[in-house]
Amino acid sequence: MAEHAKKNSPEVDPGLWVDEHGDALFSYAMMHLHNPQEAQELVQDALVAALGSYKNFEGRSSVRSWLISILKHKIIDHIRKVSRRRKVMGQLDDDPLIERVFDGSGHFATDVTPWTEDPSVLLERKDFQAQLESCIASLPERLGRAFMLREVEQMSSEEVCNVLGVTSTNLWVMLHRARLRLRTCLETKWFSDEETGS
Q1: In a domain, 3, yes or no
Q2: Domain boundary among 42, 57, 85
Q3: What is the distance of C-alpha 77 from the center of its chain?
Q4: Cβ–Cβ under 8 Å, residues 57 and 12
Q5: What is the count of structural domains for the chain?
């Protein structure tokens, strides 16, 4: 009887999922895909899958966590399918940013200015989070996906390689380039503004 009451409570009522969790699911999908149409389709797929397996939901996590978990698997499957259709080397060949930042011997062309702010403090600031998300969104699609899966979702390198269909060497190059682009973006759009006080 208690289990029946739990499934009929407002918190786990499937009729309320879109109203209560739709925005969070869409934001999560957009963080990974940066394509509103794809994000919306995958959120719908996740909700349909959740509806189909709703009777198996045991309530060991919140409904939102459970729905995001289903969505995460849908996103990974989608990325895996898209990655199989594309060649990695198209984005790993000549990169003008690499040529600008490093000299012919592989050293930085200009001095690297160390960041003086504590990253953990920065991450608590909403304005910095918004700028970081903007910089991640500006990454080339495959670099952004590699970075999100490895650094945000904290998947192992082996798992990311399997999802993206790349070798560990390709992944290392992709992550290196993603981090370099993020650093350049943040130095331009965040730290230079901080220094000038704007």
Answers
A1: no
A2: 85
A3: 14
A4: yes
A5: 2
> Are 112 and 23 in the same domain?
no
Report the amino acid identity of residue 112.
Answer: V
pTM over 0.85: no
Tens of pLDDT, residue by residue over 116-156, are 666 667 667 788 888 888 888 888 888 898 999 998 889 99
Q: Which residues constitute the domain of residue 50?
A: 8-85
Whether residue 142 contacts residue 136, with contact meaning beta carbons closer than 8 Å, is answered with no
For helices 168-186 and 157-164, what crossing angle results, to 10°?
100
Of the residues 85, 108, 136, the one at which a domain ends: 85
Q: Alpha helices, DSSP H only, in the chain?
A: 2-7, 17-33, 36-53, 63-85, 89-92, 96-101, 119-122, 126-137, 141-147, 157-164, 168-186, 192-196
Residue with the bigger pLDDT between 93 and 157: it is: 157
Among 68, 66, 61, which Cα is nearest to 27's? Answer: 68
Q: Measured between alpha carbons, how far is 45 from 66 in angstroms, rounded to an integer?
A: 14
CA angle 55, 57, 59 (to 5 degrees): 135
101 in the same domain as 66: no
Ramachandran angles phi, psi of 73, nearest 5°: -65, -35
